[in-house]
Amino acid sequence: MAEGCMMALRYGMVFFNLLFWLGGCGILGVGVWLSVTQGNFATLSSSLPSLSAANLLIAVGTIIMVIGCLGCVGAVKESRPLLLTFFILLLLIFFLEILSIMLFFIYQDEIDHYAQRDLKKGLQLFGTEGNVGLTNAWMIVQTDFRCCGVTNHTDWFEVYNTTRVPDSCCLEYSDNCGLDNPGTWWTAPCYERVKDWLNENLVALWIFALCTALTQILGLVFSMTMFCQAVKVETFYA
């Protein structure tokens, strides 16, 4: 009976980590594709230019692949070192996620202030050489969210040193429409628009977070159960 349960647990662990590994491969593939085809796509921060969508996806995909591989091989071979390494890495990531969420809520006002200041600084790099990713990101954000600037469309006046905004701020896009009358521009702040969008989708974000946490907890339980069983078997036959 115990052996049958252990076998089921092993297969469950292998299946779980195989899906985990395949998911990591998919995320890594998307990150590499974005990096090759779009450059530093979605880089909005001037102080953290490496913090792009492509780089984040590559990093996350690689971490998931490594952890999934450790768990899968550890389950197949019933290797105590690999199962313990898998458990420790997953537990560390779980605690870091909880810590990050706690720090975000504690320092939310400070994070808001820093993010707005950093984004405004990034506007100065818009359209400059070597900053295609930042330029494309701002064009997409302003077009999709129907907004202009970080806190106001006047943020762009300091960039151009004149009453002008990028063409992506226009109600109806056309070449050099950013030089037209301000009445033809979006005036809503992009920072607040994005925050409103996140608040509107808060339920979906929390469901995703809970599903992620549940998956990690199951991985922790499976790996530690297998590890303890492997210790018992080794002790029994010692």
TrEMBL record:
Keyword Glycoprotein: yes
Cysteines joined through disulfide linkages: 148-169
Localization in the cell: Membrane
Pfam families assigned: Tetraspanin (PF00335)
Membrane topology designation: Multi-pass membrane protein
Family the UniProt entry places it in: Belongs to the tetraspanin (TM4SF) family.
Protein name, as recorded: Tetraspanin
